[in-house]
From TrEMBL, chains A, B:
The keyword Oxidoreductase applies. PANTHER family: GAMMA-BUTYROBETAINE HYDROXYLASE-RELATED, OXIDOREDUCTASE AIM17-RELATED. Belongs to the gamma-BBH/TMLD family. Keywords: Dioxygenase, Iron, Metal-binding, Oxidoreductase. Its cofactor is Fe(2+). One of its GO terms (molecular function) is dioxygenase activity. SUPFAM superfamilies: Clavaminate synthase-like. InterPro entries: AlphaKG_dependent_hydroxylases, TauD-like_sf, TauD/TfdA-like. Residues 119-348 form the TauD/TfdA-like domain. This is Gamma-butyrobetaine dioxygenase. CDD domains: CAS_like.
Amino acid sequence: MLTHFEFEPDSLTLAWNDGRVTRLDVLWLQDHDPAGRHGNGQRLISVLDLDWQAGIRAVERQGDGLMIHLNTGRQLNYPLATLARDCQMTPEDDRCQSGKTLWCGNDFQLPVVGWQDYLSKDDSRRQALAAVADNGLVLLRGVPCKPGQVLEVIETFGFVRETNYGRLFDVQTVVSPSNLAFSNLGLGPHTDNPYRDPVPGVQLLHCLVNEVEGGENLLVDGFQAAARLQTEHPDAFELLTRVRLPYRFSDEQADLRSRVPFIETDDGGWVIKVRYNNRSIAPFMLPFEEQRAFYRAYRLWAEMLSAPELAITVRLEAGDCLVFDNTRVMHARTAFTDGGRRHLQGAYSDLDGLYSTLYLSGVKPC
Amino acid sequence: MLTHFEFEPDSLTLAWNDGRVTRLDVLWLQDHDPAGRHGNGQRLISVLDLDWQAGIRAVERQGDGLMIHLNTGRQLNYPLATLARDCQMTPEDDRCQSGKTLWCGNDFQLPVVGWQDYLSKDDSRRQALAAVADNGLVLLRGVPCKPGQVLEVIETFGFVRETNYGRLFDVQTVVSPSNLAFSNLGLGPHTDNPYRDPVPGVQLLHCLVNEVEGGENLLVDGFQAAARLQTEHPDAFELLTRVRLPYRFSDEQADLRSRVPFIETDDGGWVIKVRYNNRSIAPFMLPFEEQRAFYRAYRLWAEMLSAPELAITVRLEAGDCLVFDNTRVMHARTAFTDGGRRHLQGAYSDLDGLYSTLYLSGVKPC
């Protein structure tokens, strides 16, 4: 609630009953004029329409609104609710670390939602999508073991990101794999496809068969790892937000290249995206003086991601479908025996679609 | 060609016949060991496998290679060609400004490729894709005026990015449009979908019918505009690379939100992505002291993008399909009469797929 206001020609100062005081430039007031938006919420004016000579001549309280008179004759009519909403300092940004619940292996319970509940109950679906937003992942259980089903899971919240691997890809042992994921080797903690720009934001792994020994999945909260690195080795953290490494994947069908940092931060210094994938880092070169410091930071990042206390272990059983934020959660797998069958189907999607579905379901992630 | 080398325990220094001198930390040498890569090019070792105690004991030239003996007993066997390639200072990055030919309206000829040539001649297809990489756009002419054809164009170089607008969207006048693009209003220079994260890197506009007066497209090289802004107003440029604005698109089917800067730069300070779309910037707030400086920079950016000398004008005729880099090229359109028919179909794809097709066709963009 607005308790007090005062103005000068160049600005309006508002005091709210929660103690907040907001000062708004007359340019901001022109730019945010509710009359400058179409009914669909889109802005009809551009920054070029602002009058840089305009000043505030008078401000009147009118019921639930403020009428601002400019010295150019123009009036801006602001409902107080609009003003209160629009002048919040922190715009929504549900991608960034600050809005997430970070976790460690030893005190984290993997969020699990049954597929039938997910399909039939709004609350269950919301809970599952909110878990991806907040914790970075959810395990859907009892998903039919039908090839292609993983695409139907995506269609419940977003769109399939088709790639050179297809709309979906099979993770099973093949001879002479173009990608080591399709062998029975263990894989260290990694995010998928750092060589792809834009990187897919959501990954799904749907288990159709798992009869092997080994082949467990380890999952690590990369935002937690980044937060710890920042606390324990701020200089290494800073270096990894700055230096971009080249990544590459190349076979007969595709030649994908990117150049991106391990850790991306926003203008508030919050982590918004992390990456790690030792397999696909292309040869890179730095000035000699920077090489050792960079390798130190790189090693500290890899060590943090491999810290046993950060990981949870999940053995995917037939019918399990893991949905996770590929810009945050690292996955790894242990090696497995060559004998039995293990067949996962994976697919990619994007976070914006998942968040959109979550927002429309009326619940903000915590 | 290697002309000279010398080493110390912690590093190897190489002198090449082009005058280049490269110094490599023993950690770099271990990390780039050719024996540490699988036949498919993927790295088998991780940074955790490097030996921080290892030093160089001896280096021998052996034919076309160098054999590096570490004091741990390990040997690294480098073909000289591999060394020469891997220790280049600048890794490939075809997204960034430095590799592009920037253009202005008055001295730029829109690259045009005929659809039949594109389909039947490797050179024509390469030329078209290289134009998108280098200039940010190409006009394909004579593309069949068949609804859905735009998706077939995408399938020649990449994958369709499906969104809430569908696999493709129709740009024609509708009553009560959820997006002003679907009205007959003029639209200022903009990139599409800044509220989507990741933003689609490639946009296509395929003209099926154009019988209206007006409705011309203006195209602007956003990398050129950013370069000029950097030269003329370096402080404004810097501010726009740093401050992130919230964007939002919301209707009954979707609620999409992002928080991104107008201009993104890489670790070398080169522009890699630009954005502008006055319609979808959500309400935003900055500390009062920063508001005026930000509005000034924002206005300068909008003015630069609207500078008539930067734009080229294209009237899309039936059968024309414009393919452009939506992280670089701004498009605008003039208003058009309500009477005649104008029907475009648009669709999105991603740059990595387009670049991959270009690389595989054996030609690097200039």
